[in-house]
Amino acid sequence: MALSHLNLLRPVLCRCLPPVLRTPLVTGSRVSFLPEASCPMVLPNYARHYATKKSKAKAKGQTAKVNIKGALVEDIISLEEVKEDMAAVLTTLKDDFSRNLSIRTSPGALDHIIVTTKDGKFPLNQLGQISMKSPQLLVVNMTGFPEATAAVTRALQDSSMRLNPEVEGTIIRVPVPKVTREHRENLVKLAKQFSNKAKDSMRRVRSNAITQVKKSKEGVSDDTIHLIEKQVQQMADGYAADIDKQLATKTKELLG
User: Fold this and answer.
1) Could you give the CA distance from residue 21 to residue 33 in angstroms, rounded to a whole number?
2) Model pTM?
C-alpha cells in the first residue's frame, strides 16, 4: 500500500525537488533513483522587468498638464482674457501673412497699406481707386484726393512689399515684382520676421499675465500661484507651436 502511494506522489515530488533529490523508486529492498529524463524539473520563471532607455526618456520628457478652471482663480487673473490676447496675436500673424506674403497679384493686395496724411491715418483704398492693369502692374487713381498723392507714394515705398511706385500726375503706377526664386526667398524671410514679431508679442502677453499673478500673492498660497503660472506658460507654449505651424505652412506655400 505504501509503495503504491509513493508511486502516485512521484510526479509531484519530481516537480518540487532538485535533480540531486529525485524521488526514489522503491522495489522490494532496492532503492533506485529515477532517470533524470523521466522526471523533468520545472524551475519557477523569475522575470524582472527593467525600464528601457526609451521609456525612461519618454517619461522624463512628459510634463504633467495643468487645467485650472477660470472661475476658481478669476479673483487673481482672468485666464479667458489671457487666452483671447494670445489668440489675437495668432490672428494678427495670419492677417500679416495673407496681406503681405501673397504671390498672386490682385487689387486687394494694396488695401492694407496705411497712409499717413496731415488729417490722420487712412487705408490706401479709402484715398485712391486701385485697379490691376496686368499681373505685373497695379494702378492707383488719386483723382479723389490728389493732395494725398505724395503720402500714398511714400506709404507704398515704405511697405513690406518693397514696391517702387511711379507717379504721373494723380496716377500712381505700381510695378509688381516678378515671382522669381529670389523673390520667393525674400518673402520667406519676411514671413520669419512676422513670426518672430508674433512670438515677441506672445511673450509679452505671458509676461504681463505672470506679473499680474505675482502681484496677487497676498492671501493666495504659493502652490496656487505656481499652478496659475504653469497654466499661463502652458497656454503660451501652445500658441507658440501654432505660430511655428503657420510659418511652416506659409514657407512651403511660398517656395512652391
Assistant:
1) 9
2) 0.58
